[in-house]
Amino acid sequence: MTAAPASAFWAGSTVCGSNKGSFCLVVVDRGVTMVSSDAVGILVLFILYFIVIIGSIAMLIVALVDIVKRPEWQWKIAGQEKILWLLLVILVNVLAIPALIYWFNIRKKLIAVERAAAAGQFGPGHFTYAGWEPSPVAQVPSMAPPGWHSDPSGVHQYRWWDGTQWTEFTSGPPPPP
After folding, report:
1. Domain identity same for 82 and 125
2. Is residue 92 part of a domain?
3. Which of 44-48, 60-64, 154-158 has the lowest mean pLDDT?
4. Alpha-carbon distance 18 to 155, whole Å?
5. Does residue 154 share a domain with residue 122?
């Protein structure tokens, strides 16, 4: 079998043998370069490795920014631990697996909690270390009709309510000291 002359190939073309350890013929603008197919394979693996490492680092950064920006109450309501996921993403980020698990699983739960809180599904209140604590119900002064009512201060038996506020008029003896 005869080899084709280099002029039979156009610039930028590559021809490789099928045997292990064979050479590739790479035609460039000013000549022919022989490259081992093993070297080409190693180069391809190196490029893939580089892409995976860069992607892993990028996913680590994106996941870390998202984890840090979420408030603690979202994590508590979602039943997750913020510190755990921070440590997993930072310390065990082999091939970005913890970052990807966070991004496609845990983050969905946190977004659902965020949307539910925005819609008011948890009611008025605030989050403590023990969990969600509802705000005390504000006591709206009753619109009782004007008249004698039990003295709210407890100093006298009755105090006059004028329909909007308590007055200084009292009735009954003050309780004994």
Report:
1. yes
2. yes
3. 154-158
4. 105
5. no
